[in-house]
Amino acid sequence: MAFNELYQYSLISALMDGVASHGTPIARVLEHGDLGLGTFRCMDGEMIVVDGEAYQIKADGSAVHVDPETTVTPFAAVTRFRATATRKAAVSGMAGLEELLNSIFPKSRNHFLAVRMDGAFKKINSRSVAGQLKPREGMVDVCSRQTIKTFEAVKGTIAGFRCPAYAMGLNVVGDHFHFITEDRQRGGHILLASGFETDGDVEIEAAQLSKFYLELPTEDDEFDSATLKLQAQGIKKVME
Amino acid sequence: MAFNELYQYSLISALMDGVASHGTPIARVLEHGDLGLGTFRCMDGEMIVVDGEAYQIKADGSAVHVDPETTVTPFAAVTRFRATATRKAAVSGMAGLEELLNSIFPKSRNHFLAVRMDGAFKKINSRSVAGQLKPREGMVDVCSRQTIKTFEAVKGTIAGFRCPAYAMGLNVVGDHFHFITEDRQRGGHILLASGFETDGDVEIEAAQLSKFYLELPTEDDEFDSATLKLQAQGIKKVME
Q1: What separation, in Å, do the N-terminal and C-terminal C-alpha atoms of chain A show?
Q2: Would you list the DSSP string of B79-131?
Q3: Are A228 and B110 a contacting pair at CB < 8 A?
Q4: B169 touches chain A (CB under 8 A)
Q5: From the list A166, A169, A216, which residue is nearest B111 (CB)?
């Protein structure tokens, strides 16, 4: 794929329905992009992709580099990222980031954005999950057992996407970011409500994505039999 | 693109919002597929793509071959079609086709289908539209002035897609087919309620599509400023 196109495997609605037993090798996902996020089989942890490397963030907040050949993901979104806008700025929380992104991309509300932030953070509130207790357990239930970690005075990288309103059900509408420390040892899914606060200026890179390439699971009975009803409230809930 | 991937330019929600002043050259659409449907600038007519050729069906039901280099579409969906299933069967109406497709593709409700039918039809109820009266006029208003044509004892080709429920807003959920006569001189959008009836067996070709490639308009102020709210009821209405 070209730069700044969004590749996605499966649907957030499928995770909501608990479709997570199978997936695609992460090596195949990385063919389509070098920055992004996702999860793992049975929703066992948060995935972040940075510089073409995929990391698994476990329920205790620890991160491990994964072997892309032998590890499978039931949901992932990545882009071959090339920033079209860079800023050095202090940002407080998701609201602050939203404001900054709107000022950089005033005409992009109906497009996707990819965002990467590198630098020092005063505080980051993030969560991870330990996975399904049984096949087909839905994401709301999995996330009801999430563990929250607060990182303070930490350097690292935030990566993720802003998706337009009409993408609800395909992906998460609005901001969705994962975090990993500079040493790539800890991280998580950034909680929208409490978010993060930078320690002075950080490096913010972003790009508008206007091509969306969705690959659906095939030969996957869980996916084929799922109802995939739109669960907008549920999706919002698991992002908080 | 490979065979049996769905390429789409813009969103049905954008048409609902009246985003139809600009678009992409049809030549660019045809690079991605040889079978499909769409519309034209200002929603001036129904588009059908058959065997890599695009036709414009005007409000009076007449069809003209369009020059893909000089003609622009604000919304189109095509696939490089290679049937994975073929049947010779008599089909009565959209319900009959739905039943047949479900029997051929029992596990495809969460995937897209491309369908082509060739043969003799006892009757086809179709419509076309004369386009917007002003920029940003929405599709519900455009279609409120649709003209309906009933073709009887006619040979021709039906082409279109079945989209899964979660695609509502991106495209039309369920069946969406356009028709053109064998001599490529007349046609229209097949009305879901009254539909069509074959005259004995026709040739039905279909394929499951599990990759969806969405290209959003860029440098298009109409698209960028549209609200693109989900208008599920409106979309159903304009398909009837």
Answers
A1: 32
A2: E----SEEEEE--BHHHHHHHHHHHH-TT-TTSEEEEEEEEEEEEEEEEE---
A3: yes
A4: yes
A5: A216
Per-residue pLDDT of B72-81, as tens digits, reads 999 999 999 9
**CB-CB under 8 Å, B170 with A224:** no
Predicted local distance difference test score (pLDDT) of residue A233: 76
The answer, yes or no, to whether residue A231 has pLDDT greater than 80, is: no
Q: What's phi and psi for A183, nearest 5 deg?
A: -85, 5
Please name the member of B107, B169, B215 whose beta carbon is closest to the beta carbon of A211.
Answer: B215
Contact assignment for B210 to A210 by CB distance below 8 Å = no
Cβ <8 Å between A110 and B223: yes
Residue A56 sits at the vertex; the CA angle it makes with A238 and A71, to the nearest 5 degrees, is 110
Give the ipTM of the model, two decimals please: 0.96
Give the residue from chain A lying closest to B209, CA to CA: A216
CATH class of the domain comprising B6-239: alpha beta
pLDDT tens digits, one per residue of B215-238: 999 999 999 999 987 777 777 777
